[in-house]
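Quick one, T. Sequence first:
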Amino acid sequence: MQSSRTKAVAKYQAKVGLAARTYKLKVHVADAFKEACAASGASQASVLTQFMIAYTENHELGIDANSDEIKRDAATEKFLQREVNWLDEKLKDALARINMLENRNKQLEIKITELELKNNKKETKYAHKLKYYSWEL
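Structure tokens:
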């Protein structure tokens, strides 16, 4: 017997047109796909949906998925993605260096402020002597 929650979920899925499908895939392909989706922060279902829609549209336009054009586009996209990843790493390194330099700058500003305060204390400490000697001039 189904619980009321299970019935409600099934009713909702039927309403919005969701259906469960199973496919047999090589383990390493499925695992690599799962890791790639997790790394990009996308759900496996959303990525598969996007692919299925694009594949269906290409089929309707008469574009063969095994055509050289599709393979060339995929190779270009893979190359561009590697370039983007490389640039992301460089940007992260640059931002980390900027943060380090900003922290160092703050530390130096604090030291300068401390030295200025010490100097002001010395001037205040010897102010009476400065007044005395300034009268002699």
